[in-house]
Amino acid sequence: MAKAKKKDINAEMGLNEQTPREIVEELNKHIVGQNDAKRSVAIALRNRWRSRRLPDEMRDDVIPKNILMIGSTGVGKTEIARRLAKLVKAPFIKVEATKFTEVGYVGRDVESIIRDLVQTSVRMVRQQRTEEVKEKAAENATERLLDILVPEPRRSTNPLGKLFGNAEESDEPKKVPAEEGKTSGRDFVKKRLLSGKLEDEIIELEVADHAKPMVGMFSGSSLEGMGDNLQDMISSVMPKRMRKRKVTVEAARKILEQEEAEKLIDMEEVAEAAVELAERSGIVFLDEIDKVAVKGSSSGPDVSREGVQRDILPIVEGSTVMTKYGPVKTDYILFIAAGAFHTAKPSDLIPELQGRFPIRVELKSLQKEDFEKILTEPQNALIKQYKELLKTEGITLEFQEDAIERVAEMAYDVNEQSEDIGARRLHTLLEKLLEEVSFNAPDMVKEGKTEVSINAEYVDTRLKEIAKNRDLSQFIL
Is 326 in contact with 271 (CB distance < 8 Å)? Predict the structure, then answer.
């Protein structure tokens, strides 16, 4: 019975029930354009849902089709990954390929990607199990708080008790008759506790003293996994150190609820469910893949970069990685790789790795119309952000239509003339444009000036000379 429940929970967590069209619509709320990339991601997610409904004998043969996104910086590759992470109910991890080195070199080994993915999966499953036992944990925490606020009366200790062998007896709580057990004092305190009248009271609480992790002792080497296992082994052998803390009742309740929830959760079952979830539903976003591509010959320092590709290959192809939660098969993990490919080309990747990313999506450079939409359309568009930031000071900021057009035009022109950094150019322009207002906002409010209107003329005054002067724009914009 318990096993069936676990599978249902995994099915619920590991899948996104939205149709491809709904996924694209959700991404459209935050990302402008790049419909090809959005469609590919949406189809990949939906295929996960479809594969779960296949007969058992066919399901194991259907592996995810990995995606390679090609496009310059600032066009939306990472943003698609970030929004995807919030959208899917699956373990998701974003890593940079440049962080890893070939086995034998100093640095992180690629297997740590899977270890991190499983860690994310464990956190997700544990969070869900905590939600399931939340009510019971809250009840237990309330009882423990009452024990602290209204302690059991103890019998006075006889100093000669130890001599006569009744020392144990003297330390026992006083025997209270059943009719007196439910004292009015405890009931009174419980009512006040549940009504929230004791939240600011300070109490002394005994909590486990969590030792600080051995940061840096094993990180940056292929011994990372061994370091994790060693820490777990030491913590399981050594008794927990306790220390006393003075905290409010409100803070104590949170600590006790967490402790009680941990007692109610079977961590072995959590680990087992988390490994299955990571294997079947995990998504890895591998950014900066072009930085490990080797152009032409692979002599000299480039040998390490080609080595990273060779190390990534078995994980993408499907292999078993040992983690502290058990072995994890990578056959059904979806890999989405992305890179600008300015100096290298996808064909500079080793052929075996190219073959493991059958879906290629090219993200287009942003046009003037795209910049206008980015400024105004997304849920937390840049202009909306600046308006809200200045509203906290009491300033009402208004952008006229012609100002938005002029900023978009400048962003496009500067990207054309110098390096194309995509939508990130808008951050630079707007920061420079609103520098004066942002600096003087508190003084303006004191003087009674609470409204600022930005039009094309204001944009020209603040930015036109910088944008025109190519040498200057390279330094400032």
Answer: yes
Task: Give the model confidence (pLDDT) of 455-475 as tens digits.
Answer: 989 888 888 777 666 666 666
Give the helix, strand, coil percentages of the chain, each rounded to 5: 55, 15, 30
pLDDT in tens, 227-282: 555 556 555 566 667 777 777 877 788 888 888 888 888 888 999 999 999 998 88
For residues 18 and 24, give the distance between their C-alpha atoms in angstroms, rounded to a whole number. 10
Task: Specify the 3-state DSSP secondary structure of 450.
Answer: coil
Q: Take residue 390 and report the two structure tokens written for it.
A: 């200045």
Task: Say how far apart CA 470 and CA 326 lie, in whole Å.
Answer: 57
CA 434 to chain CA centroid, Å, is 31
Nearest to 429 by CA among 476, 472, 389, 387: 476
pTM for this entry? 0.76
Report which residue type is found at 296: G
- Residue-wise DSSP of 335-370: EEEEE--SSS-GGGS-HHHHHT--EEEEPPPP-HHH
Listed in sequence order, the residues at least 6 apart from 144 whose beta carbon sits closer than 8 Å to its beta carbon are 256, 260
